[in-house]
Design goal:
mainly alpha; disordered N terminus; DNA polymerase, domain 1; 2 domains; single chain; hpI Integrase, Chain A
Length: about 350
C-alpha cells in the first residue's frame, strides 16, 4: 500500500479514510497516526505509557503485567510474521489488517477464545494510552472485540466452601499458621476481599467494635478506591482466634500488618499461592482467591441480600458487574420454581 501524508490540521489521512472525513469510531482527540521509525521506538512508547499509567493514573501492577503479557504476544507476531514495518508505517487500513492477522495467528496456535479476547483487550487498552498521551490513532478501535464464550461460573458451591473451611480449621501445623491460613481464606469468603487487599491489610484496618474492615487502595485508578467491608459473626470469631495466637507468639508488634509472616512484616503473594496449592493437593478443591470473591457474592444472593447492598459490599461500580459475579447452581432453578403455586 502506498504511504499517504498525514495532516495535523485535519487529523486525517486523505486515504484510506472513507469519503466524507473521519470514520465514526475515531475520537476527536486523535491527531496523528500510530507511526514509528522502528520496533524499538514502539517499545519505548509502551514503556512510557506504562510509566504514565502507573505513576499518574495510579493503575495497579497487575494491570501493567496484563498489558505487557498482551503486548509481548502481539510483538512476537509482528516479528515472526515480518509485518512490524508495515504496522509502523502509520497506515490505518494496513494496521487493522495486521490486528486481524494477529487474531488468526493466535487461534491457529491453539489459543482459547477467552485467551484471544484477553490479549486483544490488553493491547487495545495499552494503545489507547498512546492516544491519550500523544493523540495517536489506536488501530484496535477499527475492529470489533473478539468474542468469547460466556465464562463458566467461578464460584464454588456452599458445601465446598464449608469443606474448605473445615479442612483449614483442622489442618496440621503450628496453631499460629493454622489460624492465619483460616483467617486468609475466611476474609475472602465472608467479606469478599481480593488477594491484594488481604496482603495490604493493616492492624488498624480491622475494627472489632464496629465489625468493619477498611479496604485501602482497592481496585481502581488513582491508587484505588477505599471502601468498607463488614465482618459477619463467624468471621469475627475466626479473626479473634487468629489475633490471640498472634499475640501469644509475640507477633502482635510485627510492624503494622494484620496477617503476620514468620519474618518481620506481612505475608507475601507467594505465601497465598502456596496456601491454595496445598488446598488443592489436600482436598482436590481447585480454588483461587478470586473464586472465593465470586463465592462471597453468590452466597449473598442466595441469602436474599438485595443486589444494591451486595454491590456496595463487594465494592463494585455497577449492578451489572455484581450480577456477573453471582453464579446459579444446580437445583436453585427448581427450588425457585416451586415457589409458584395456585389454589385450585
Amino acid at each position: 500500500m502506498k504511504d499517504t501524508p498525514f495532516s495535523l490540521s485535519t487529523g486525517q489521512h486523505p486515504q484510506p479514510w472513507p469519503a466524507g472525513g473521519l470514520p465514526s469510531f475515531v475520537q476527536p482527540r486523535v491527531t496523528r497516526p500510530l507511526q514509528f521509525g522502528n520496533l524499538k521506538r514502539l517499545d519505548e512508547q509502551v514503556r512510557r505509557a506504562i510509566r504514565h499509567a502507573h505513576d499518574v493514573e495510579g493503575l495497579s501492577e497487575r494491570t501493567m503485567k496484563w498489558w505487557m503479557t498482551g503486548y509481548g504476544q502481539f510483538r512476537r507476531y509482528l516479528v515472526e510474521g515480518g509485518v512490524d514495518r508495515v504496522l509502523l508505517r502509520g497506515e490505518p487500513q494496513a494496521q487493522a489488517e495486521i490486528v486481524e492477522g494477529w487474531i488468526a495467528w493466535m487461534r491457529n496456535r491453539g489459543a482459547q477464545h477467552g485467551t484471544v479476547r484477553a490479549y486483544w483487550c490488553a493491547v487495545y487498552s495499552l494503545f489507547d494510552r498512546f492516544t491519550k498521551l500523544d493523540g495517536m490513532w489506536n488501530p484496535f478501535r477499527a475492529l470489533r472485540r473478539p468474542r468469547a464464550a460466556p465464562a463458566i461460573p467461578r464460584a464454588i458451591a456452599r458445601e465446598d466452601a464449608e469443606r474448605l473451611l473445615a479442612y483449614l480449621r483442622n489442618a496440621k501445623g503450628s496453631p499460629l499458621l493454622v489460624a492465619r491460613n483460616l483467617a486468609i481464606v475466611s476474609v475472602m469468603i465472608f467479606a469478599g476481599l481480593r488477594r491484594g487487599e488481604v496482603l495490604r491489610l493493616e492492624l488498624s484496618d480491622v475494627d472489632h467494635a464496629a465489625r468493619t474492615i477498611r479496604i485501602r487502595h482497592g481496585k481502581g485508578r488513582d491508587g484505588g478506591k477505599t471502601r468498607t467491608a463488614y465482618i459477619p459473626r463467624q468471621l469475627a470469631g475466626v479473626l479473634r482466634s487468629y489475633e490471640q495466637e498472634r499475640a501469644a507468639t509475640g507477633r502482635a508488634a510485627a510492624r503494622l500488618y494484620f496477617l503476620a509472616a514468620r519474618r518481620e512484616g506481612g505475608i507475601s503473594d507467594g505465601a497465598i499461592r502456596r496456601l491454595f496449592t496445598t488446598i488443592y493437593r489436600q482436598t482436590g478443591l481447585r480454588v483461587s482467591p478470586h473464586m472465593l470473591r465470586h463465592t462471597f457474592v453468590t452466597m449473598l444472593r442466595q441469602a436474599g441480600v438485595a443486589d444494591r447492598v451486595t454491590m456496595d459490599l463487594a465494592g463494585h461500580s455497577s449492578l451489572a458487574m455484581t450480577q456477573r459475579y453471582s453464579a446459579v447452581f444446580s437445583g436453585e432453578h427448581l427450588e425457585a420454581a416451586d415457589h409458584l403455586s395456585l389454589d385450585f
